[in-house]
Each structure stands twice: as C-alpha cells, then as structure tokens.
Amino acid sequence: MSFIMFIAASMLEYISFFIFVMVLFRFSVKENILKFALGSVILAFVSNTVQTESLQDISPLVNVFILFFLLTIILRTKLFHSFIMVAIGYVAQALVQWLLVTILIHFGVFDQITTYTGNAYRVQVMTFFVMCLISGFISVTKGGFSYIQSNSRFYKDTFRGNKLFAIFMILGLVVLFAGNIFYMTYERLSDSFATICIVVVAILTVMIYFSIRKEG
Q1: If DSSP codes are grouped into helix, strand and coil, which group holds residue 148?
Q2: Neighbours of 42 (CB within 10 A)
Q3: In degrees, to the nearest 5, what angle opens at C-alpha 59 toward C-alphas 86 and 109?
C-alpha cells in the first residue's frame, strides 16, 4: 500500500510541476497534459527506485535530468530553454512545499515528515493543489511569458524586458540550494530555516508578480 501511495502522490506532485511550467510559459495544457502525465508516472517510479536503493543524494539530479528530457522532447525546446523552465518550476514548487512543511510543523499538525509516511503523502497532495491554484491564478489573469515557444523561438526583446524576473529567479535558486544544504547538515527545522522560507516565499511572490504582467 505504501508503494501505491508513494507513486500516486509523487505523480500528482510532478503533474502540478508540469502544469505550472506550461501555464507560466503559455504552452497548451490541454494538448500536452496526457504526455506529461505519462512522464510523471515514469518520474514517480524512478523516485521510488532511487529511494529504495538508498540513493537519495542523487535523486534530485536524476529527476532534473528527466525533467529536461521531457520538456525538450514534448515541448520541442532547446536544452537552455528547458533549463529556464525547469529552474523556475523547481524553485516555485520547492518554495510552496517548504512553506507547507514549515506551517504544518510550526502549528503542531505534524511532528515530522519522512518519506513513505502518511504525512509525506499529505504534503505532496497539498503541494499539488497549491501549485494548481497558482497556475489557475496565472491563467485567469492571462499572465506568463511567451518568449519560449515550440521549435525554440526565442523573443529576446521580451526577455530583455524582464531582467528583474531573471534576477529573482537566480536569487531564488541560490537561496533554495543554501536552504537545502542547511537542512541536510542539521536535519531539523529551526528559526533560521523558517527565516529562509519566509525569504524565498517573498521571492516567489515577486516572481509571480512579474509573471502576470501584461506583455506589450
């Protein structure tokens, strides 16, 4: 049963990632969702294999590689453009999950969250719903960017007009990796970790603001 729950929760988590990326960069969710749903199943099985083989340290690298591959093949984008999409989606989803974990533990809903437990599955499902809500908000407000399109057409003028977005994306990545290193070192939540979460959530808010600006 834990295996089925892990696959289902992980699949939902990956699907929400792809939906967010497609909405943010104005790709058709309807046309690509079935392909990405299949890719999400593959990613879920890969994650389970990595976890059971005690290779958790390389799990993020394996997942990122597969995400690059799927985005490049399905949306027909170049690797550089896929990197931009994966980086933004990864940061956004990580921030959402961090915030959820921090809130749930801070208010005593969960004592701890570990892999293959009901608490972990619940966090993954909640991450799915929050990411879908953010994607829905961006879609309803007609936000997002169109400088990356199929066949890798790249509108430099559009990207140049959103330099601040790129800056906050890079800053978000730096803070994200710093937080990961902190967590792996101390293996616990602390006031410093909570502060990092607040900072990265603020960064995410700014990123969303720039993402929903109307393009001229």
Answers
A1: strand
A2: 14
A3: 90
